[in-house]
Design brief:
Layout: E1 2-6, H1 11-23, E2 28-35, H2 50-73, E3 79-85, H3 88-98, E4 103-107, H4 113-119, H5 122-129, E5 134-137
Parallel strand pairs: 1-2, 1-4, 2-3, 4-5
Helix pairs in contact: 1-2, 3-5
């Protein structure tokens, strides 16, 4: 079994790693971080330096992977790690399809109502678009 856990730097993402490691400890678990280049417009001077933005994000990603692995270590699980650049929802679903993922587990902030409408929900869109089962951890 292959489980995909998309992560960012949030408590719900860490909860999803914990859930996956404790629920599917015998599976291959891949943590995936999507670097969203459209976010570069919100980061000051990196707006005009795409390559530098990606480099900084890759450095941050290593710290995310270290945190995820420390959570998995509590369950004697070794994680595989992957980083992709693109739009989060499409990147997660495409990765899952291309790598024959059996299950996706991802965290959700649990927003509802107008905040979900305005901000969108990666978890909700992944649930709608993925061909495999998706577990949303809150």
């Amino acid at each position: 079994m292959h489980v995909l856990v998309p992560i960012d730097d949030s408590e719900p993402a860490r909860d999803a790693v914990e859930y996956a490691a404790s629920t599917w400890s015998d599976a291959t678990i891949t943590v995936l971080h999507v670097i969203n280049p459209s976010m570069s417009m919100y980061r000051g001077d990196t707006t005009y330096n795409y390559e530098r933005f990606i480099e900084l994000e890759e450095e941050r990603t290593e710290a995310l992977f270290e945190t995820a692995q420390s959570i998995a270590d509590e369950h004697d699980v070794t994680l595989e790690t992957e980083t992709v650049v693109g739009a989060p929802v499409r990147s997660i679903v495409d990765f899952a399809e291309e790598h024959e993922v059996d299950q996706i587990a991802l965290g959700s902030h649990g927003r509802s109502g107008i905040s979900r409408v305005l901000l969108g929900s990666v978890a909700e869109q992944v649930v709608r678009r993925a061909a495999m089962p998706v577990t949303v951890v809150r």
